[in-house]
Please model this.
Amino acid sequence: MKNLDNVILVGHSYGGLVVGGVAEKVPDRIKRLVYIDAYIPQDNKSAFDIITHLETISRFQFHDFRERTLKEQGKEWLIEPYKPEEFGVTDPDDIIWMNPRLDPMPWHTHDQPLRITNPKAKILAKSFICCSEFGNAQFKAQKSSEDWDYHELMKGHDIMITAPTELVQLLKDI
Model:
């Protein structure tokens, strides 16, 4: 991150944990964190821990991950990617574009806890974009927090694919 300052980090879905982890390490270089329908890091919690504590879980989030492992290929440590349709992508051209770009994800990315203790990271400006097309979005509870700039779009989880223009406009506004 040489010569980068006033960075706006954007994380989508699992990427919320990534931007939260980066903020822990270099908060002085970050201007704002933007979470797009994303996990919100909690100290010493894994993605699995966060999901099990949410009151409402998106109907597509966390099918039984154990059933999604690639064990029949001898790779039980990898989780098969979700299909575009599972997150509301319906345009055939988008599906054709997405499919070759989807890759398995290591199992342990979801069970290893993240340390969130840096006081400078905790006071960074934060925005949350809730994609609520499927009803109760998994992180809708963030709306009630005064520390967050909250936005809701009636779009599916993969908004960057299904409604890129609206997402870009919102990001510009933020």
